[in-house]
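Build the 3D complex.
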Amino acid sequence: MYKNLIKNVVIVGGTHGNEFTGVYLAKYWLKNPNMVQRRGFNTNIIFANQKAFKEVRRYIDRDLNRSCSLSILSKNADSHEAKLAHHLNTLIGPKDNHQENADFVVDLHTTTSNMGISLVISNQNELTWLAASYLSEEFPDLKIYRWQGDEEGAFVDSLGADGFAIEVGAIPQGVLRSDIYKQTEEIVYKLLDFLENPSDTNRTVNVYDHVTLVDFPRDNDGEIIAMIHPQRQDNDFKLIQSGDPMFLSFEGQIIVYEGSESLYGLFINEAAYYEKGFAMCLARKIEYSF
Amino acid sequence: MYKNLIKNVVIVGGTHGNEFTGVYLAKYWLKNPNMVQRRGFNTNIIFANQKAFKEVRRYIDRDLNRSCSLSILSKNADSHEAKLAHHLNTLIGPKDNHQENADFVVDLHTTTSNMGISLVISNQNELTWLAASYLSEEFPDLKIYRWQGDEEGAFVDSLGADGFAIEVGAIPQGVLRSDIYKQTEEIVYKLLDFLENPSDTNRTVNVYDHVTLVDFPRDNDGEIIAMIHPQRQDNDFKLIQSGDPMFLSFEGQIIVYEGSESLYGLFINEAAYYEKGFAMCLARKIEYSF
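Done.
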C-alpha cells in the first residue's frame, strides 16, 4: 500500500503562452484557491509564462517546456525562459535533489492534435504512475503517452518529485473552448482527490510508449513538400501499418508508412512541432507494470 | 451580359503569416505558375508577409489586412506591415484610382472558426458579385459574408478593382490540413475558370450581411470571464434567437442572447479576434441582388 507523504502540490498553467486552457484555469484558481485546496497538502498555482501569454506566443526566446534541464539550470540564465526555469526551480525544485519543494507537479497543456485527454509521463516514480492509473480508471478515454522523445529531462514537470503533463486537444492555439476547459478542470479535480487519498490502483496500465519522431517530407532547402494525409489527420492513437498513407504531397502523391512494425500515431499535426521538425510521433502500445 | 475586360488577376497568400494554407498555396503556385494561368489575362501570385510566416505570427507590427486604407497609404510607412501595404499598392493598386494594376484580387485566409468555405466581400462591384454567385453555384456549401465590420476599406483585396477574401475553417493557426488546402485550391481554380469566361450568373444570392460584433464578457480589468457556450462553438452560420446561450462563465453561468432580432453567428471563436475584442460576428441573412 502506498504511504502518503505529500505536502505540496503544484499546478502549472501557461507554460506555453498560447495554450489558453491552462492559462485561464491558472487565473481562475489564483482567484478561487478554495477550488484546488484539499486536506493534508498545500496546492500552489503557477501561471508560468505571462509574457508569452500577453504576446499569444508559445514562448519568447525558447520553449520553457524544454528549458528545465540541469544543464540550463546550472548556468546563468541567458533568455526569458531560462530565467523562468530558474525561478520555477526555486518554487518547485531544486531539481533532482530528492528534497524538492513540490511533491507532485501537474503541467497543463493543449495541442492542435486530436489527442483527446492524455497524460505525458517521463518518470518512473510510483506516485506518478498510481495517479495515472487512477485517472485512466476515472476517465476511460484517457490515454497515457510515455514520452522519451526530445529532452524529456527538460520538462517543467521534471522539476518536482512526481508529476506529469496533461495534454488535451484538438484545440487551436490562442483559443478557449469550454469543452476542453471543463475536461481539463475535471481531470485536475480528480487528480487532487486522488492525491488527498491515494489508493492502491491497478499497477498495470495501457501505455503508448515512445518509439520515434517522423518529420514532414522536405526538399533540399528544408521546405515542407507534403501534408499530413487525410487518413492520418485527427486519427491520433490509431494503428499505422506498413503501406498506410502518411503524407499527401502538394502534387497529390501519397507517401506511405514503410516501417516493419505497426505503431500508433500521436501528436499528429501539432502546430508547435513544425519548427521542431516533426509531423507526428510513433508509439508502441504496451502493458506497463510498475 | 457582362463584358470581360480582365487583364490582371492577383492571388495573395500569407497576408497573415500563421495562416499556412494560403502561404503554401502561394509557394506552390510560384513554383508551378502554369496551374493558375488562363487565357486572356495574367495571374500573379503574391506571398505577402514572409517575415510574419517565418515567425509563425499573424503580423509583425500591425495586421496587414487592416493596413491597406487610404490613410495609411497616403503617409510614410512606419511599420513592417505599412511598408508591405505600400508595396502591395504598387503591385495591385494604386487604390481607388479606377486604373488599378489588378482587375481582380483574391486573398486567401483561414480561420479557427468553423466557417467552412466562405467569401468575405466588402465591395459592390459587378464582377465581384458575379464571381461570388458563380462560386456559390459551384460549391453549394459556400457562404457569402458581406463584411462591414471594422476597417473594411483596409483589406488587401480592397487595393484592386474587384475581388474578395476566401476564408476556410476550422483550422488552427500554424497548421496545414490537406482537406482545407484542397478546398481552397479548388475554389481558386473555379474562380479562374470563371474569370476566363465570365457568365451571367444568378444576380440574386444569399448573403450574410454584417450587423454587429459581440465581445467576450469581461471584468472591470478587461479580463475575459466567460467562454463561447458549447451550443455556439462550431455553429457558425446558425441562427441565434433571443434566450439562446452565448457564453459560459468559468463558474458555469450561462449568458444568453438578448437581442430582439434573430441573427446568425459568424467567426465564432476566431483566435485572432481575441485581441481585437470580439468573440463572434452577428449577421442578417438576406437575398442580395446586384
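The mean pLDDT of chain B is 95.
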